[in-house]
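Reference record:
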Amino acid sequence: MSAASAVQRVLARVAQGDAVPAACASEGLAWQQDVTVDAHYDGKPVCTVTLPWVVDGHALLFADASLAASVAQERLASLAAALAMPVAIIPRAA
């Protein structure tokens, strides 16, 4: 079993409404809550960001379900570049 597929299964469970700790426990993945990291621009730290969840090294963020998919994708790319770690955005009902 690859770690990437385990993360994908956790993300799918969270998107369906499971709690992050429960979804991670089902796959045996490590998780942390309220993790502070540096965001970078042009290789230099510019600010700190508190991530609500980090699952096996992936930042997990939630977006209002009314957010357009194209906007979510732009934010995903921007955050992934600034955080230098994989970022997943899970839609949530408003």
Remarks:
- Residues 69-83 form the longest helix (15 residues).
